[in-house]
Specification:
homodimer, alpha/beta, Quinone Oxidoreductase, Chain A, domain 1, Rossmann fold, 7-stranded mixed sheet, 16 strands, globular, binds NADP nicotinamide-adenine-dinucleotide phosphate, NADP (chains A, B), oxidoreductase activity, acting on NAD(P)H (chains A, B)
């Protein structure tokens, strides 16, 4: 089969479409013929050599896709069934092996590209802001990086839950897009200090920056607030004052969807389909695809993330 | 009325029984004539000048008591009713004003002294290991300071829930007491490295040490583990590696019972009475009173905590 192969280690520009062996199925897996693959920042981090795939996972990039079942393996699925899939890797390819629990239905009216653009973000956002830290109606959430793939999904899910949504982004253009998807409070992090603007006000913070924001995030958290860190774009180390945690009754959480067990992933997929798929189907949550490119242009796709020139999602199609 | 007054600021030995004004009742409060007061490490920290009472609270020491209602204020309580009370302060006195939501019944068969010895620890342990981080059957919990007031209560509640219990303490004698209350894994922190012993094994950690233990605690946490910090006996600052939080899907929590709102306190009291009082009444959770002293000997009582010469609780009676 054809797949994206990295020809120079650590260089995200050195990606070529090449011939590689088709994956073989493990018990409980199906083979999906990929029609579209979503691009995630983790793909870039992996291509840069900073995020090795978990043991046993494919070293081909790609954490989500949509397509048709080509081989149902030992499952009761039908060959030809159209599906989406949450992947541990391997999505930038013609075929990928997927544990059955990580298959998702195509939302009504969605194309393959539109489906591939929502799986990783919907599962990440739902599992974190709801399952992990219980965002609820009337609460305030701060979403860092509101204009990214995760950001635009998080804004819309949080609004659907009934929360007040604050976002940070690095440009007026991205903030305008955030606003059009429902964000209530817009903060340009290059010009404003979000911690001063939101002091003691945030019940939940969805953090993608890590170390350099820890102190400010704790300052912005309200009493009883919860922060969930899913990205470390600024680095992983920080000094922490545990007294602030105690005085404010706050909690700090960290998760990586990719490293969760297949059982936990299956439960996350189940809850996401149950709760977010209806939001996609009735229009409460909308796709925002920045650009659709052929699979062979994977390097060009990742370059959007290098330059942060995109808003929402980039998708590769075959 | 008589109450313990500090005659030299910052000196926990300078405590005298003196005449002071009786508290006046706020709406929703009752006046309790104190028969017994529990001694907590927070009393010592406050007497040392390091833990100022929250705004509006009495500056008399004492976070829990048992006695009789002397004035029901605007509530429907009866004068003469025997009660326990969770206090924001003021327990080392003849009378104390208590919001009705912070009253607890006397567990069947318990004396005033026995009641005063369990309120703060039961409410703290239940609200943290169950309400905050959801310890459940079959999980492993590490309890730091197993031989203290909080420690012995936590061991027994965790065993009643069906957890495996590991404890740290600084002497073989304290570890023996922990064992007699149900602890399964005994670690002398002066001789052993708890993090090596329990690497990746703890679903929950009840932490009272803070900064110096953070890295080790994170090492000891299992995937999906939760740490709840309620004391900072070693200090409040630490370096944190947020990458570890993400890779292990862990969460770090901090709370202070004393600084929670009256509404939250009332809910904690309600849940503690519902869940822990039956354990006290059927013997699953037992009192361990190290010494009972007259109220006038408050300084002597606090000195046990200075020297850590006690196991379990010290109680002051009138
Ligand atoms: N742990 C998990 O399970 C998991 C799952 C999925 C994604 N993630 C992580 O989530 C993050 C977002 O992923 P993504 O795919 O949505 O990437 P993305 O599309 O590149 O979005 C990231 C956004 O963050 C903004 N940003 C960068 N630095 C910022 C700062 N200091 N403050 C505020 N915003 C900042 C960027 O735009 P501007 O700077 O131009 O505003 C960009 O819009 C990544 O770190 C990714 O690794 C984690
Ligand atoms: N946040 C809240 O809401 C809340 C409520 C109640 C209590 N607390 C806190 O909880 C802690 C315990 O309170 P307590 O009243 O039970 O005090 P305690 O009776 O003095 O117990 C503390 C125990 O910790 C042990 N210890 C000291 N350093 C240790 C270390 N490095 N590693 C392991 N054990 C160590 C001590 O014994 P050895 O060192 O001799 O073994 C002692 O048995 C205190 O910090 C208190 O302030 C917090």
């Amino acid at each position: 089969m054809k797949a994206i192969v990295q020809t120079t280690e650590g260089d995200p520009a050195a990606l070529e479409l090449q011939e590689v062996p088709k994956p073989t199925l493990q018990p409980g897996e199906v083979l999906v013929k990929v029609a579209a693959s979503g691009v995630n920042r983790a793909d870039l981090t992996q291509a840069e050599g900073n995020y090795p795939p978990p043991k046993g996972a494919s070293d081909i990039l790609g954490l989500e896709c949509a397509g048709e079942i080509a081989d149902a393996g030992d499952t009761n699925r039908e060959v030809g069934e159209k599906v989406g899939a949450l992947l541990v890797g391997g999505g930038y390819a013609e075929y990928v092996a997927v544990p059955e629990g990580q298959l998702l239905p195509i939302p009504e009216g969605f194309s393959f590209a539109e489906t591939a653009a929502v799986i990783e973000t919907a599962c990440t956002v739902w599992s974190n802001i709801v399952m992990e830290v219980g965002l609820s109606k009337g609460e305030t959430i701060l979403i860092h990086g509101g204009g990214g793939g995760i950001g635009l999904m998080a804004i819309q899910i949080a609004k659907a839950i009934g929360a007040t949504v604050a976002v940070t982004a690095g440009s007026a253009e991205k903030l305008e897009v955030c606003k059009s998807y429902g964000a209530d409070i817009l903060i340009n992090y290059k010009e404003q200090d979000f911690a001063e603007e939101l002091k003691n006000q945030c019940d939940v913070i969805l953090d993608i920056v890590g170390g350099p924001y820890l102190k400010k995030n704790m300052f912005a958290l309200a009493k009883g607030g919860r922060m969930i860190t899913i990205g470390l774009q600024g680095g992983n180390k920080a000094e922490i004052n545990m007294g602030v945690m105690m005085m404010k009754d706050i909690s700090l959480h960290g998760t990586t969807l990719r490293r969760r067990s297949p059982e936990v992933k299956a439960e996350i997929v189940r809850q996401t389909v149950k709760n977010v798929w209806p939001m996609l189907e009735d229009g409460r949550v909308k796709n925002h695809i920045h650009e659709t490119l052929p699979l062979a242009d994977a390097a060009k796709a990742l370059n959007h993330l290098v330059e942060s020139s995109h808003t929402g999602k980039v998708v590769l199609v075959q």
